[in-house]
Amino acid sequence: MDTAPTENTTQPRPDSPPPATLSTTPLAAGQIAPDFALRTTPDQKVSLSAFAGRPIVLVFYPADWSPVCGDQLALYNELCDEWQRHRAQLLGISVDNTWCHIAYARDRRLRFPLLSDFEPKGEVARRYGAYDHDQGTASRALFVLDRDLTIAWSYASPIGINPGADGILEALEALEARRERAHA
Amino acid sequence: MPRLRIPVTDRDHQRGPARAPVTLVEYGDFQCPFCGQAFRVLRDIEDRFGDDVRFVFRHFPLTEIHPLALIAAEAAEAASDQGRFWDMHDTLFQRQPSLEPEELIAYARQLGLDVDAFTEDLAVVRHRDRIRADFMGGVRSGVNGTPSLFINGELFNAPAEQRLLARAIEAARRGRPGVVAPI
Fold it and tell me: Hey, which residues 11-50 in chain B have their CB within 8 Å of chain A?
């Protein structure tokens, strides 16, 4: 993540508070995923805990329509069979409002829900450490949650880089392997 | 940095010598306009580097945003069954975006293929599993969109543009790891 040049020219004094960061660090594996309820349509909210009992993939992304997000979500859309094979629920989250999400999902024929972290703006993204304060949008961060809503894997991608899907698939496979060992 | 996880084998579509010092693997989508642009660049690269480059094409159709990508990939595979993969590959990129089924059949006729066999292959989506296997292999190698290029197994993390690509291939030919330009 680039910072503005002026931010880099002065070194903070050892006794000064840390400079305000422009982006945050995503919650790490082992932590409990904060619950939330966000709108998918103007009159419908979904809560994270409603999906407990199956693996969940949270995809925070900066904006509908921007090219990299488009590729990223298009890729996840092609992988719906894989998410189903793992019985995983994938949820996209950005600060766009529901009307924007509806138009975008229709245009791209998305087959997973987009949640609107719109009011108060980015509150859920902030709680997950997936907010870019400079841009005022969610950052590009991925979380894979276990069935009990524990974070099993998280990853922050540089804002302009599409993180692909291999990390998510590996995390889902690791969860499955652990579950099989526990049942053996 | 993502690396190619699925090694190149006889099963792959390839042109150029198997012992070329540089192997260039493309994950591509016949309906993707950026792949169409990259096609011209890659032809120039193949001409320029001659026998020093082996070129491999693998399917990575993004079917929801490119509704004709899958049937175009089927067309390339159906042509491959008749020994004409590369002719169809080149035709599809040259004729992009005209990839409707009747247009694909017209291309098959122009190439002198057995049109009945070709049409039936398309109708029963005979090569669906192979195309999906290419796609999933790409996903596991970190492919996140198209075109994605690997030079001697290393992701070329820059736009598929003549100058950058030639520089990376030149470096690979000299036995150094591919020069990767930051975006």
Answer: none
Record the pTM: 0.88
In a domain, A13, yes or no: no
CA–centroid distance for B11 within its chain: 14
Q: Give me the interface pTM, i.e. the ipTM.
A: 0.87
Q: How many domains does chain A have?
A: 1
Nearest Cα residue in chain B from A79: B136
Q: Does B144 sit within 8 Å of A75, measured CB to CB?
A: yes
Q: What is the CATH number of the domain that holds A40?
A: 3.40.30.10
Q: How far apart (Å, rounded) are the C-alpha atoms in residues B41 and B179?
A: 18
Q: Domain residues of chain B, as ranges?
A: 21-173
Out of B63, B64, B144, name the one closest to residue A164 (CB).
Answer: B144
Contacts of A34 (CB under 8 A, 6+ apart): A27, A48, A124, A127, A128
For A40-88, the pLDDT digits (tens) are 999 999 999 999 999 999 999 999 998 776 689 999 999 999 999 999 9
The CATH superfamily label for domain B21-173 reads Glutaredoxin (3.40.30.10)
Question: pLDDT tens digit string along B116-169?
Answer: 999 999 999 999 999 999 999 999 999 999 999 999 999 998 888 999 999 999
